Amino acid sequence: MGRSSRDKRDIYYRQAKEEGWRARSAFKLLQLDEEYNLFEGVTRAVDLCAAPGSWSQVLSRKLRAKEGKKEDVKIVAVDLQAMAPLPGVTQIQGDITKLSTAEEIIKHFEGQSADLVVCDGAPDVTGLHDVDEYIQAQLLLAALNITTHVLKTGGTFVAKIFRGKDVTLLYSQLRIFFSRVTCAKPRSSRNSSIEAFVVCRNYSPPEGYVPNMSNPLLDHSYDVDFNQLEGPNRIIVPFLACGDLSAFDSDRTYPLQLDSGKEYTYTPPTQPPIHPPYEQACFMRKNNLLAKEDAPAASLDRSLSAMQLSASEDQEPPTSDDQGGCPGTSVTEPTTPTDK
């Protein structure tokens, strides 16, 4: 499938490239902010599972847009995978299930807690919906767990959720820590997807609660009886569709030339992934190494070594003499959005 066909398929993917976003998922956070005004009064924000960095990019542009407020705004992005630097964003390459990661976040905030925590993390879907929903639920709970370490009382937590048949237990878990929980579906999120976002506001943990990474928050089981509760025992979380019919439909196909007087030109991605997990497989496929089952091991090792050497030569350490950022971090403007 050619480049033009891919651009034609998704309007938000094309818009992300034209506006300089790293991924189309940036519009999801922008539309959530339009509906809930998430960024009001926020000076310390955390982006969990941040790579490739589109949500961190939104936080950087929105929170640092006001004159005289750039020095007061602190943004921390956390992910196991490396990503290209962003202005004003401190990156932590770490595990959100580790206490050391939470301590490092607080350290960057100089002992203060965050006003906002967002998480757009999702597993590599398998197509088995029950498995995907369970793994996503565990990822959301891991994000909630570290959030209880770093979020201030009254703060806001936004995270991706798969709306399956067993989400009642997740909602009840979130209601323990937040007085207001809403499930939202941005216009840029495809209607064919079970993806949605929980917007949890007014963080107020139970009296005497002590955050602890060693114990999972979810200590119940996904059973039929629990999800069949009725009346006041069942928690019904409000669901809101963000955006109206005037916005672009993410499931519709649009022509490449949207403006009659403007010719369509291809726009390359803003920032391709840095050392993605599939990099080695792509290299072997391009060099026809996967088909050669009897290929000598030495030849394969030489090819992989050449790939790693070329990658290290291409990845020059970024420098930032004219960009403002957090102390101890290199900050550069992105040079070349990928779909997340």
From TrEMBL:
The keyword tRNA processing applies. GO terms for cellular component: cytoplasm; nucleus. The active site is at K160 (proton acceptor). Keywords: Cytoplasm, Methyltransferase, S-adenosyl-L-methionine, Transferase, tRNA processing. Methylates the 2'-O-ribose of nucleotides at positions 32 and 34 of the tRNA anticodon loop of substrate tRNAs. One of its GO terms (molecular function) is tRNA (guanosine(34)-2'-O)-methyltransferase activity. Interacts with WDR6; the interaction is direct, and required for 2'-O-methylation of position 34 in substrate tRNAs. Residues 294-340 are annotated as: Disordered. Coiled coil: none annotated. It comes from Clupea harengus. This is Putative tRNA (cytidine(32)/guanosine(34)-2'-O)-methyltransferase. Its EC number is 2.1.1.205. S-adenosyl-L-methionine binds at G53, W55, D79, D95, D120. PANTHER family: RIBOSOMAL RNA METHYLTRANSFERASE (PTHR10920), TRNA (CYTIDINE(32)_GUANOSINE(34)-2'-O)-METHYLTRANSFERASE-RELATED (PTHR10920:SF12). One of its GO terms (biological process) is cytoplasmic translation. Belongs to the class I-like SAM-binding methyltransferase superfamily. RNA methyltransferase RlmE family. TRM7 subfamily. Residues 305-322, 329-340 have a biased composition (Polar residues). It catalyses: cytidine(32)/guanosine(34) in tRNA + 2 S-adenosyl-L-methionine = 2'-O-methylcytidine(32)/2'-O-methylguanosine(34) in tRNA + 2 S-adenosyl-L-homocysteine + 2 H(+).
